[in-house]
């Protein structure tokens, strides 16, 4: 309890990530590439990173696809993205280091305000921190290396373990839409994690992604692999200061759980308000494997994120949990996609959304059961808390069931904070702000309890601060 209060007090005085981090600073960079996206730009990124020829060729294939594929018409905010005005590769004036003291002070202050060094010391076995286009801090505990675990910045993994990386890179999530292809052409940063057969990593590993300035695109690529019978939990954190204009995030996460493995991926996205956030996330589960996704999407101007799992092997299972918050005139989509391709596979999707002051949250999901996936089971539950008449929630499920023995169910609820609930809590000594925050936290409490302790505290406090002060109720 004392540790809980200590962690909570570190962010009690701020009302948002923007207040905590302040307005963006100006940084100088070793390299900046911006403007029209050309073959020369893509090859220059590959040259700067010292990539093998197979990665250079992959980038160029992705560029060709990006130029051919149509822009998705259903995606909002696309018209706001001027790709030719963005910096697509920004290398900071620092190299990758393994001590926080070696990180430049003006950059380190951001991570300190977010509590990352303290969380690393208490809870993590490995941590990478990315600033704009490059990993600038990386530290892996010795006992992981002794177990044969590979955790490296993606660029280093491409050079040191090309055959292993090539087995997974953009093969779990191929370039099936324009922005996935764009990512493949321009990706920079991210992490590669491989856990050998039978190895269990009980403490989480983390990578934290930070956008430092306006008019940048960040396109990190992360791959997490749990080999046969292995267990790993990777946490992805995201943030940015108050941006004077906008920046564009188009990251990708690919996961692979081999036979009997367990792969957990937790994301805490707390972007500032001027980030347009696209995510490409998919994992494959072989026979008897388990994939767990938790997606906490709090900040940003616009978000599209659909964690997805391909249940490839018999008895594979997945759980996809999402918390999405839209306070203010923002549009957030946090859905889930599951493909049941084998017998006795199972999936559970739980999506919690909160909208206030004109915010719109959309659940967009797909459950596909292939013929022959006998006795597949899937349940989708969408719960929405709509806090005023100006806000909205939309649920767009899409079930494709081609197997007679499958059972696929869906349920959805929508509720509001009523005056009766507020009056009840005020009568028991709560202020109105505390009462609102308590109701919102109660709404997502069943999800928070399953997160690592440090992240449950931080995410809970962010939600509490975000929704404790509301201009309208009911």
Q: What would you note in describing this structure?
A:
The protein has 474 residues and is an alpha/beta fold. The protein has one domain (1-467). It is built from 13 helices and 24 strands. The chain has helices at residues 2-9, 17-21, 39-48, 53-68, 105-113, 116-123, 142-146, 154-160, 162-166, 178-186, 419-426, 432-448, 453-467, and strands spanning 29-34, 87-92, 126-131, 134-140, 150-153, 191-195, 205-210, 217-218, 221-226, 231-239, 247-257, 262-270, 275-285, 290-297, 302-305, 308-311, 317-327, 331-334, 336-340, 346-356, 360-369, 377-386, 392-401, 407-415. A ten-stranded mixed β-sheet has the order 4-3-7-10-12-14-17-20-22-24. The chain has a six-stranded parallel barrel with strand order 13-15-18-21-19-16. Strands 1-2 form a two-stranded antiparallel ribbon. A hairpin with a 2-residue loop joins strand 3 and strand 4 (134-140). The two termini are 34 Å apart.
